[in-house]
Design brief:
The complex is a heterodimer of chains A (about 525) and B (about 300).
Chain A: H1 4-10, H2 23-26, H3 31-59, H4 70-105, H5 113-132, H6 158-187, H7 199-230, H8 244-261, H9 264-278, H10 285-299, H11 314-326, H12 328-342, H13 351-374, H14 376-382, H15 386-416, E1 418-419, H16 422-448, H17 463-491, E2 496-497
Helix pairs in contact in A: 3-4, 3-5, 3-17, 4-5, 4-6, 4-15, 5-6, 6-7, 7-8, 7-9, 7-10, 9-12, 9-13, 9-15, 10-12, 12-13, 13-15, 13-16, 15-16, 16-17
Chain B: H1 2-8, H2 20-39, H3 49-71, H4 77-116, H5 123-129, H6 161-185, H7 188-220, H8 227-259, H9 269-294
Classes of the chains: A mainly alpha (about 525), B mainly alpha (about 300).
Chain lengths: ~525, ~300
């Protein structure tokens, strides 16, 4: 939509123009069109999931049941998570990958464009199935996004819809991931050796590997739930020799790599933005790649820390505690290198840089509370409390979501050819940053004071901080309307024209800035050489 | 490779838009809706039919488009490499899908069942819940879930039909390799014969599995619901059988393509993709034979 209006004048000699009408979107094979659809879909889901979060915070504004029945509250927490994880964060990253990876590696398009179309178009149907559960007897799934049996097996008519929706989301993710890997390995311009590849492409390569490794495991886990519910199998039934805890092991074998699937691309984005606005190359670029690869490897052997309190042998607890703490080492390398990148740089604070720096500080807060949760005896105290909620929201909101917003502010002028209002974008950053801390920081206190998560009502001692948190929540939610406004304006082509390099310091950092803004419909028709000043 | 890439890349092939992906998404949604309606008993099981009919047409139409483009020589070596990489990573995802079920088998057998039988610190729980349960493998759990009134069931001995099936699948791995070599050296008749032998062996395998299932259901008291043994046995062998069936159908498709003169010694991605897939189901079977039937 956005660049459609301006695409012709950018390259009128190009014969491959987007087709007119609905076919452009339904039959799309162009990485930019598909990337745009992914991003728009993610934005819609961000507001759907956000609306559920607003309902949750409204209910928790005061103690006592205020607005809804506990059953409905549970439906909201469950679906807020599912929508945000599988509908907002993951599709947003796939959308960014679609847009940027061909541009960054010097390819004309993604390697498997039709599969790309399928992996996008599965998503609206998957979420129709999931959100459609609102209208069936028994309501939406309410057993938590982790779908633990036996509770989840009590779901009403929504149960098979949930399972099949997860199957569809998994299929979509796997196809998207295969496409990313094949594009990077096969379509990369020959001049670009792997270690010269931009960090965003690198982190996505590793993320894609994680996706292909663990999404099938999730599919297997929910298939076992399905057969336990409908076909009498005993996977999670102790009477038949199974074990409900086995589900948790299989689920978190998927679930922990999934956590990194939602953060590694953000690492890549931050590694693109900090050098640009520091006007310095990324400090220790190669060690950044190895750090991401180490984090990905470790993600497979730490799943037990999600279930310390469930009961497992002491040796297993120790192993999972140690391996979890090991993750702090490569993560520390990354935070150190990002900081060192800014050290003595000529910093300027445009919106992408603000979000990147916000990410650096607040993601680190989430990382530190993660270390606290990794300690087995401490976890026995923190588990299932608002401390956990605060922890993972710090890594996901000012972590993953800020990363996505930083990326959008960084590349939106490249995509649309127009610049957004710098002032409003800075307002968006400051409002988001202030409110996100008002929203989530008090939840640490609530958790340490003993407030359990996933409850619609609470003891009056928790009232003050809950009210503060809710105010932060409403403020954060409202601030995002500003984001939507800025993005829509750019998509409509309203604003100052952007140059090819867009940012003062960008020309040094990647092939995407060598193309005009917006780039031609098929990015690079021949493999480009790397201009010698281009480095990580 | 880098230079070859640079040389060909001036004529990068970018496929035109296609209606089949979105049709595939609608098909999957229809299949799911049928399954949801059936499982929730909103509609009888024939609500699955539209989805599966659409699925058949999906494969016919999409494959026809792709095979047509391939035969027209539109795909260059770069596209071929993309297809190969895509197939490899798809097979890796399939391996991980089976890993989930193998994981469930190992976890249940080595941890859950001993715990239920009172291993280590679990002794008090056992006394409280199922004090007569002895554990061991195979087991249908402390509640002895079985179609038989006395709660017993029998397993299928590894050295009967399963051993025959192992021989069949391993032989089919040899025949497809002979077919592959025949393709590379241009012996078309040998190629067609050994490819046919491969899918015939495949279908024989599926037929024997069906016999085995029939025997298990009617005579051995071994069903999907027969505790954890029945669950892991039927889910693992069932998904494997499904994959063998899909693989055999793929073999039939490329067999017809061979008869129509498709594939050259240099360009035959579809053949290799199917061959890899076939070796994958072969290897999964070896895992099944060892860990499900034998040990």
């Amino acid at each position: 939509m956005a660049y459609a209006s301006t695409a012709h004048d950018a390259h009128d000699d190009h014969h491959d123009q987007p087709v007119k009408g609905f076919k452009r979107w339904l039959y799309a094979t162009n990485h930019k069109d598909i990337g745009t659809m992914y991003l728009v879909f993610a934005m819609i889901m961000f507001f759907v999931g956000g609306f559920m979060a607003m309902l949750i915070r409204a209910e928790l504004f005061k103690p006592g049941l205020q607005l809804m029945q506990p059953e409905f509250f549970n439906q909201m927490t469950t679906n807020h998570a599912l929508v945000m994880i599988f509908g907002a964060v993951m599709p947003a990253f796939v959308g960014l990958a679609n847009w940027m990876i061909p541009l960054q590696v010097g390819a004309p398009d993604m390697a498997l464009p039709r599969m790309n179309n399928l992996s996008f178009w599965i998503l609206p149907f998957a979420f129709t199935l999931l959100l459609g559960t609102f209208f069936v007897p028994g309501g939406m799934p309410a057993g938590g996004w982790t779908m633990y049996p036996p509770l989840i097996l009590q779901t009403g008519a929504a149960f098979p819809m949930l399972i099949f929706a997860v199957h569809l989301m998994g299929a979509s993710s796997i196809m998207g991931a295969i496409n990313v890997i094949v594009t990077i390995l096969n379509m990369r311009t020959p001049a670009m050796t792997l270690l010269k590849m931009p960090l965003f492409a690198w982190t996505w390569l590793i993320t894609a590997y994680l996706l292909i490794a663990v999404m099938p495991v999730l599919a297997g886990a929910v298939t076992m739930l399905l057969t336990d519910h409908f076909f009498g199998t005993s996977f999670f039934n102790a009477a038949g020799g199974g074990d409900p805890l086995m589900f948790e092991h299989i689920f978190w074998f998927f679930g922990h790599p999934e956590v990194y699937i939602m953060i590694l691309p953000a690492f890549g984005i931050i590694s693109e933005i900090l050098p640009t606005f520091s006007r310095k190359p990324l400090f220790g670029a190669t060690s950044m790649i190895y750090a991401v690869a180490s984090i990905a490897f470790l993600s497979f052997i730490v799943w037990g820390h999600h279930m310390f309190a469930d009961g497992m042998p002491m040796a297993a607890q120790l192993f999972f505690m140690m391996s979890t703490m090991l993750i702090a080492v490569p993560t520390g390398v990354k935070v150190f290198n990002w900081t060192a990148t800014m050290w003595r740089g000529s910093l300027s604070f445009e919106p992408p840089m603000l979000f990147a720096i916000g990410f650096l500080f607040m993601f680190s807060i989430g990382g530190f509370s993660g270390l606290m949760l990794a300690i087995v005896p401490a976890d026995f105290q923190y588990q299932n409390s608002y401390f956990v909620v605060a922890h993972f929201h710090y890594v996901l909101v000012p972590g993953a979501i800020f990363g996505i917003m930083a990326a959008v502010y960084y590349w939106l002028p490249k995509w649309t050819g127009v610049m957004y209002s710098m002032t409003l974008a800075k307002w968006h950053f400051w409002l988001s940053t202030v409110f996100v801390n008002v929203l989530f920081f008090p939840q640490h206190f609530l958790g340490l004071a003993g407030m359990p998560r996933r409850i619609p009502d609470y003891a009056v001692q928790f009232a003050d901080w809950n009210m503060v948190s809710s105010i932060g929540g409403f403020g954060f939610g409202l601030s995002q309307l500003l984001f939507a406004y800025l993005v829509i304006r750019c998509m409509r082509g309203e604003g100052k024209k952007a140059t090819a390099a867009v940012w003062d310091g960008a020309m040094q950092h990647g092939l995407e800035w060598t193309l005009p803004s917006p780039p031609p419909y098929h990015s690079f028709t021949t493999p480009p050489d790397l201009p010698h000043q281009v480095h990580l | 490779m880098a230079q070859a890439h640079a040389h060909e890349a001036s004529k990068y092939y970018i496929p035109h838009g296609s209606p089949w992906p979105i049709y595939a998404a609608v098909t999957l949604f229809t299949v799911m809706l049928g399954a949801v309606s059936t499982l929730n008993e909103w509609l009888p099981a024939y609500s699955l039919i539209p989805g599966f009919v659409m699925l058949v047409f999906l494969f016919i139409f999409w494959f026809r488009t792709v095979i047509g483009e391939s035969q027209a020589g539109i795909y260059n070596a770069g596209v071929d490499r993309s297809f190969r990489l895509g197939m490899m990573w798809f097979i890796f995802s399939e391996v991980m899908f089976f890993a989930a079920f193998f994981g469930a088998l190992f976890y249940a057998r080595t941890l859950v069942v001993p715990w239920l039988a009172g291993d280590g610190t679990k002794y008090l729980t056992k006394l409280l819940l199922w004090k007569d349960y002895q554990g061991g493998w195979p087991t249908n759990g402390p509640a002895s879930i079985s179609p038989r009134a006395n709660g017993s069931f029998e397993t299928i001995p590894a050295l009967g039909l399963p051993a025959v099936n192992t021989a069949i699948l391993l032989t089919s791995g040899v025949t497809i390799t002979i077919a592959h070599h025949a393709l590379l050296t241009g012996h078309r008749t040998r190629l067609a014969i050994f490819l046919a032998a491969t899918f015939l062996l495949g279908f024989t395998f599926v037929g024997l599995q069906a016999t085995e299932y029939h025997e298990a259901y009617t005579e051995l008291g071994l069903q999907l619901g027969t505790g954890i043994y029945g669950s892991t046995f039927f889910m693992l062998t069932g998904f494997h059988g499904l994959h063998v069936t899909i693989g055999a159908i793929m073999l039939v498709v490329i067999w017809f393509r061979v008869l129509n003169g498709h594939f050259t010694p240099k360009s035959h991605f579809a053949f290799e993709g199917v061959a890899w897939y076939w070796h994958f189901v072969d290897v999964v079977w070896l895992g099944l034979f060892i860990f499900v039937y034998w040990l």
